């Protein structure tokens, strides 16, 4: 699957070929947790969401555990003394970010739309509404 990010200065229209994951009981795709490094945590911090996620919806990972062939285990820390990764549900993070972006009046989210063409010189695009991605 290819991922494309479109960033505009001003009004933003988001087109997603899948359904809104917040309306689905089961979402097809990656199910394992994500590990957010300082860079991802910094983005959440800028949105005022890091503490909320840290206190309610994540697990701190201070180190990776290495299992040697002789059966010995050893921890290798992630970065400096107080640094850690955050383990968080991919689905939860996606749903949280969608809910947050909906708070902005200048952003429009369009689910079940697939981008089928674009003229970058003219800043024009064409999407197919009610696209069935076969994800259900």
TrEMBL record:
One GO location term (cellular component): mitochondrial outer membrane
Residues forming coiled coils: none
Superkingdom as given in the UniProt entry: Eukaryota
Cofactor(s), names only, from the UniProt record: FAD
Oxidoreductase listed as a keyword: yes
SUPFAM superfamilies, per database record: FAD/NAD(P)-binding domain
Membrane recorded as keyword: no
Keywords noted in UniProt: FAD, Flavoprotein, Oxidoreductase
GO aspect biological process, one term: kynurenine metabolic process
Listed GO MF terms: kynurenine 3-monooxygenase activity
PANTHER family with a match to the protein in the record: KYNURENINE 3-MONOOXYGENASE
UniProt name for this protein: Uncharacterized protein
């Amino acid at each position: 699957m290819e991922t494309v990010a479109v960033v505009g200065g001003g009004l933003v229209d988001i087109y997603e070929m899948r359904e809104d994951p917040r309306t689905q009981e089961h979402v097809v795709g990656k199910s394992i947790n994500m590990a957010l490094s300082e860079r991802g945590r910094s983005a959440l911090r800028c949105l005022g969401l890091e503490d909320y996620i840290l206190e309610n919806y994540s697990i701190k990972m201070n180190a990776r555990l290495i299992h040697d062939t002789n059966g010995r285990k050893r921890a290798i820390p992630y970065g400096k003394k107080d640094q850690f990764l955050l383990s968080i549900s991919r689905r939860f993070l996606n749903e949280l970010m969608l809910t947050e972006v909906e708070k902005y009046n200048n952003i429009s989210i369009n689910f079940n739309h697939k981008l089928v063409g674009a003229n970058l010189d003219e800043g024009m695009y064409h999407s197919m509404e009610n696209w069935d991605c076969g994800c259900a």
